[in-house]
Amino acid sequence: MTVPKLRIAGLDKSFGTGERRTEVLRDINLDLADNEFVSLVGTSGCGKSTLLSIVAGLQDFDAGDLSIDGAPILQPGLDRGVVFQSYTLLPWLTARQNIEFALKAAGYDRTACREIALEHLDLVKLSQSADRFPSELSGGMKQRVAIARALSYRPKMLLMDEPFGALDALTRHQMQELLTQIWEEHKLTVLFVTHDVEEAVYLSDRIVVMGIGPGRIMQTFNVDIERPRREEVMETPAFMDLQRGVHKAIREASRRPEMA
Amino acid sequence: MSADPPAKTGPARSAPKAATKQARRRRSSGIGAPIARSRFLMIAVAVFVGLGLAWWAATGLEWVKPIFLPSPGSVATQIAKLAADGTLWLDLTASAYRISIGFLIASALSIPIGVLIGSFRSWEAGIEPLVDFIRYMPVVAFVPLSILWAGTGDTQKFLIIFIGTFFQQVLMVMDNVKRVPADFIGLGRTLGLPDRKILTRIVVPSALPGIWDTLRISLGWAWTWLVLAELVAATSGLGYRITVSQRYFQTNTIIGYILLLGVLGLITDQVMKALEKVLFRQDGHSQ
């Protein structure tokens, strides 16, 4: 068997110590193949964001193994691009400068920074707004810059924590379509956290349903819907069946916290 | 993070005039209700004019003795006289020099220390409780000590301004730094930046509008501590002139200088505010 892009094996995580100790994640096992798009879904408190944060290297864990291309993950790094829900564009930099900021950190020289930044702004259809400051951009535009930034320095995989959670429904749909297009054209391994089941089905190759008390993987769904996917696919019976199935799994996962 | 600015709401254009008027009236008196800028200015100016008139009337009708409250005319003449013979200018430059140096020393130390204790818990443990303790010691009580330590020269003025502003500034800068969104720091870490670079490239620039505000507010206090130091022991400066004038019952000088101090404070505050708008225009923090 080939080495998976991302391997999470037997991962445990808890917060606090002694009597106040709460187990947030128990025995998480998940492999992501190269160029696979996997979504984590589940009710709040199931630890899906914590898991993503651990993979990003922003939080530590108690036990288990975590590796990218076979190399253990010890700290945050440029091999994983992270998109946060809160956009995290630096307000004193323009859209282009925000991307250049990341590229500079990745060690690109000045001319390359500028070139790659503009290229990625073009990718998210924001060439016109390159020199605008975040305060002059809408929520959706900000998140597009953040995605462009995370893609720009060519990470091995993309980690996205409810990236469209703060957007209105219409913008969210546009962003999903854009992300699908980019992903289908450029192919990338993505770990995506969301509480929006429709979004998960539309974007993913595989959906992982997590349950609470402690957070663990309950069920996995393969999304065998043909690509390229466009918005119309959401109306098909196959899509809606799967959506219902995932919803049901989430409900069951959150209803029976005591059963392992 | 702030999203798009809220859309301006106003009475619907097609609404009948009477209804619009009523709606507007109701809105302009409620809590937090907006009023027109012209109206705001009118009220503000009216208060100043009203107080000025009351002063003018009280002295003109001789309700109070000039030794307690001289007339506006007498104050203006006296200030003009002091300006003409150069006294005012000397007092002003002496005071401006002291506040500049004292404030610069305090700020130059408080900003880096505030950034450190706002970012690293062990620095916070080492410094924050101590600063919090000293902060509650009245600055006034340090004046005799400061004279004992530093004499009555400029150094003592710097010292009093420093004691009065530094300890407040440190805690406020710490707070400014703690308000930097955790995800900004997370971003820096995912980009593989070392802590030092996260501090200089993300934390400090992000906290800068807040730090600037801290400087603006503490500069206002610095004027108070300056005058306090000059009142007690000095041979020049605005505070010194006020003390000397008391000895000779020159109430018009005292009042003139107090008004002047108010104006100086107002000017520095407005300058800082204007600079803030220029410096952090794109941040959307200033609004």
Automatic annotation (TrEMBL), chain A:
InterPro entries named in the record: AAA+_ATPase (IPR003593), ABC_transporter-like_ATP-bd (IPR003439), ABC_transporter-like_CS (IPR017871), ABC_transporter_ATP-bind (IPR050166), P-loop_NTPase (IPR027417)
Domain of life: Bacteria
A cellular component annotation (GO) from this entry: plasma membrane
Statement: the UniProt record of this protein carries the keyword Membrane: yes
Keywords from the named record: ATP-binding, Cell membrane, Membrane, Nucleotide-binding, Transport
Membrane topology: Peripheral membrane protein
Organism the protein comes from: Mesorhizobium jarvisii
Family annotation (Pfam families): ABC_tran
Family: Belongs to the ABC transporter superfamily.
UniProt keyword annotation of Magnesium present: no
Name of the featured protein: ABC transporter ATP-binding protein
Molecular function GO labels: ATP binding; ATP hydrolysis activity
PROSITE patterns xref list: ABC_TRANSPORTER_1 (PS00211), ABC_TRANSPORTER_2 (PS50893)
Subcellular location: Cell membrane
Automatic annotation (TrEMBL), chain B:
Secretion signal span: none
InterPro entries (alphabetical): MetI-like, MetI-like_sf
Keywords: Cell membrane, Membrane, Transmembrane, Transmembrane helix, Transport
Protein location: Cell membrane
A family per Pfam: BPD_transp_1
Topology class, membrane: Multi-pass membrane protein
Presence of the UniProt keyword Transport in the record: yes
Gene3D superfamilies associated with the record: MetI-like
Residue stretches spanning the membrane: 40-58, 99-121, 133-152, 221-242, 254-272
PROSITE patterns per UniProt: ABC_TM1
GO BP term, pick one: alkanesulfonate transmembrane transport
Main localization, broad class: membrane
GO CC terms, sorted: plasma membrane
The UniProt record lists the keyword Cell cycle: no
Family statement: Belongs to the binding-protein-dependent transport system permease family.
Role: Probably part of an ABC transporter complex. Probably responsible for the translocation of the substrate across the membrane.
Listed name of the protein: ABC transporter permease
Source organism: Mesorhizobium jarvisii
